[in-house]
Amino acid sequence: MSNVFGEKVKITLFGESHGNGIGAVIDGLPSGFAIDFDALARDMARRAPGSSPLSTTRREADEVEVLSGVFEGKTTGAPLAILIRNTNTRSGDYQPHLPRPSHADYVADVKYGGCQDYRGGGHFSARVTAPLVWAGSLARQILAQKGVSLAAHIARIGAVEDTRFTQPDAALLQALPNKPFPVLDDSVAEKMTAEVLAAKAEADSVGGIVECAAVGLPVGLGEPFFDSMESKLSHLLFSIPAVKGVEFGDGFALSAMRGSDANDPLRMQDGRVVTATNRNGGINGGITNGMPLIVRAAFKPTPSIGKEQQTVDLRTGENATLQIHGRHDPCIVPRAVPIVEASVALCLLDAML
Questions:
Q1: Domain annotation for the chain: domains and CATH numbers
Q2: Contact indicator for 344, 135 with CB cutoff of 8 Å
């Protein structure tokens, strides 16, 4: 497995959903940075399970133990290692011979010869995003010191849509993570909640979209062709379990426009070049142009649902049915917001250093 991302700042993820613990090693951080541990804890709480009727009932304290790389509250410049113990597992809910539809169960069984830890999805589980959020939250603190602000919101759950970012500023992006339900238009929060609870009541699930923006970026981040800013961000965002689509700016909608509508006119403003619109999401030619970076990640519905589903029995080689009894999110999107933020922050920090 390849579990390392980054060039200047490298992050390695380890652990399984029902193993002893999960964690990360972050290498390449600047020394002497004073860490705000309270801010890290707030971001971890936003991702944590068991805190809402919209999430899984599995409860984990997600207490982070810093093993190395921090001394007297500051980064030392050495590899920073963290460990999060798993404390609330129910491994008996999983049957390895009956792969769950749209999960990695079957492909992992083939690829690793049945040696993978299948409990709770093992290393493929979204549980492993907990240390990713901690690392990304720290990256966001370092970015803030460099004048970069970023945050995400729930752009869509099922058929219910929030307002999209147009001209986000630092004040908006700094306030968003403090909202109990991270949307731009508070009037849609109740409708989104109802959408999730309706699916949950039918032993089903629902997907959605998370939109992230970053402001304060310099012109010039990104290395075409193969290390363009879009390529790097997509690489990390597609690593988040359940992400099946990524787009920048107006994304796929640009394909239905004429060039006169899709182009972002260049203008002078306060002595610098800006664009009058931002349909390209702050990136041209794979390089940041100084406008707000806007990226969206589409999440499929949680594949673990209570409805009976069709599968195969790997022991007998015959068709079978499966009803999943584990604890799962009826919608992963609300908890995915800090995960998307963390991924974007790590990628941008790696590019800026």
A1: 4-352 (3.60.150.10)
A2: no
**Alpha carbon distance 120, 58 (integer Å):** 11
Which tens digits make up the pLDDT trace of 208-261?
999 999 999 999 999 999 999 999 999 999 999 999 999 999 999 999 999 999
Give Cβ neighbours of residue 7 (< 8 Å, ≥ 6 apart).
350
CA distance 89 to 94: 11
Chain centroid offset of residue 196 CA? 19
How many Cβ atoms are within 10 Å of 59's Cβ, its own excluded?
14
Per the CB < 8 A criterion, the answer to whether 73 and 35 are in contact is: yes
Regarding pTM above 0.70, the answer is yes
134: its two tokens: 């901690």
Transcribe 170-201 into DSSP letters.
HHHHHHGGGSSS--SSGGGHHHHHHHHHHHHH
d(CA 103, CA 124): 9
C-alpha distances in Å from residue 181, one per residue of 117, 148, 185, 335 = 34, 23, 10, 10
- Token pair in block for residue 150: 């970023």
The conformation of residue 216, written as its DSSP 8-state character, comes to S
Look at residue 27 and give its three-state secondary structure: strand
State both tokens at 178: 């403090």
Q: Which of 66, 40, 26 is nearest to 134 (CA)?
A: 40
How far is it, in rounded angstroms, from Cα 95 to Cα 259? 53
Quick one: how far is CA 148 from the chain centroid? 19
